[in-house]
Design a protein that fits this description.
Distance between the termini: 28 Å
Helix content: under 10%
Number of domains: 1
């Protein structure tokens, strides 16, 4: 089961400053990977990696 969090970034992100709405989706509980998807432009999505969970040492 995935976790979904909708967030607003009024100033956008570097390179996509015109996009403010995003959803953050982690695929599994405890996973080091998540998708940051634009809700304004569905073709924009970024893979995020939690480096602490991926390589804790």
């Amino acid at each position: 089961m995935s976790e979904l969090l909708n967030i607003q970034m009024p100033l956008g992100l570097p390179g996509v400053t015109d996009l403010a709405g995003f959803s953050l989706e982690r695929r599994a509980q405890g996973s080091a990977y998540a998708w940051l998807r634009s809700t304004d432009a569905p073709d924009i999505e970024l893979l995020l990696v939690d480096v602490i969970r991926q390589a804790p040492d």
